[in-house]
Amino acid sequence: MKRKHSTFGVEEEENEINLTPMxxxxxxxxxxxxxxxxxxxxxxxxxxxxxTVTADxxxxxxxxxxxxxxxxxxxxxxxxxxxxxxxxxxxxxAENPKGGMxxxxxxxSTNETLxxxxxxxxxxxxxxxxxxxxxx
Amino acid sequence: MxxxxxxxIHVEEDENEINLTPMxxxxxxxxxxxxxxxxxxxxxxxxxxxPDAPVTESKxxxxxxxxxxxxxxxxxxxxxxxxxxxxxxxxxxxxAENPDGSVVIQANKKSTNKVxxxxxxxxxxxxxxxxxxxxxx
Lengths: 136, 137
What we know:
The complex is a heterodimer of chains A (136) and B (137). Chain A has 136 residues and is α/β, with parallel strands linked by helices. Chain A has helices at residues 19-36, 85-95, 111-124, and strands at residues 51-52, 56-58, 61-67, 73-75, 78-80, 100-105, 129-132, 134-135. In chain A, a hairpin with a 5-residue loop joins β3 (61-67) and β4. Chain B is elongated. In chain B, α2 crosses α3 (113-125). β7 of chain A pairs antiparallel with β1 of chain B, so a sheet runs across the interface.
C-alpha cells in the first residue's frame, strides 16, 4: 500500500482535499438530473414489433402503449379497456405535456385497435405519436 | 465516544467537522443513478402524427395516393392487387406523377399491424413521409 509520508500531521486531519467546492459541483449536478428526470412508465408486456428500415429514434417518448397479438391494450403494466384509454392518456399527458407517445404494437395486432389508440391520443391532445418498430 | 467531540466544534481551525465521506458516497450514488437512468429509453419507430388529423374518413382532393389493405392483408393500389415487395416502386411511380399527393392508407379493421407498418415503411422508402391512416368502417 503506497502512502505518502508527509511532514504535517496526517493522522489529525482526515480531509486533505478541499471538499466544499467539489460538493457544490456535485450537488448542482444532482439537482439538475433530479429536475430533468421524468419517469417513463413501461407498458408491461413484450411485443413482436414489425421490421422497418426507415424508422427514427424517438427521443422524447414519455407515454408507452402496448398492443399485443390478441389486441389487448396495456398501459403502465395493466391491461386497459379501450374506452378508458383516452382518459388515461389525458392524465399521462398532464404529467408531461411535451412528451411524445409510442405505440408498441405487435405485428399481428389488428389495425382496429391501433386506430382506437390513435384516435384516443388525438382526442387527448398528444402531439407526437409514433409506432414502434424493429429498425435495421 | 463521538459525543465528546462536539466540544471541538468551536475550534475555528477545523473547517470540516461533519463527516463528509459517507455523505459523499450517498450523493455520488444518487448522482450516478440519475445519470444512468436519464438517457435510457430510446424507442425507434415511425412517426404517425402531424398537426392535422392522423385519422381521416376522407380526403378532399383525389390526387392522393390511396392504398387499401383488406381484411386478408392484401395490398390494393389503384384497384389492382400489388405484391408487398412492389409497393415501394408503385408509390414511387405515383409520387412522381403527383408530387404533392400524400399517401392515404385505408386499412381494414382486421388487417394486421405488420402490413400497415410495411406499407408505411415502403412509402417512406419511396420518399413520401406524409402518410395518413384511415379506418374502413
